[in-house]
Design goal:
Length: 103
């Protein structure tokens, strides 16, 4: 095994640092796609949150706007319905399950 010339080692370190810096700058400038939520979440809500679903005049309505309103206005009713359905399903054999809410 031979030794590595320190000049080449420093050149390699410089190239790696430069590559890191350029990648960070590229991402910071917005050139890389912005993923606001994991693919599983995007699939479950119909796509990325920044997708425009409607436009009224010059105002755009995004999927995030729709999700936020739905969450704020219907969250408790949906949780109640899901709990009721789970209780009904688990009560079919005659036992009554315990319910714990964490909201």
């Amino acid at each position: 095994m031979g030794t590595v010339n320190s000049k080449y080692l420093w050149m390699l370190i410089f190239i790696l640092l430069l590559t890191n810096f350029l990648t960070g700058a590229y991402a910071f400038m917005g050139e890389l796609p912005k993923v606001d939520s994991p693919k599983v979440v995007q699939d479950s809500i119909g796509g990325p949150l920044e997708d425009v679903v409607a436009k009224v005049g010059d105002q755009e309505i995004t999927r995030a706007d729709v999700y936020q309103v739905m969450r704020n206005e219907h969250e408790q009713e949906t949780i109640d319905r899901l709990i009721a359905e789970a209780v009904e399903k688990q009560s079919e054999n005659g036992s009554k399950p315990t319910v714990e809410r964490f909201d």
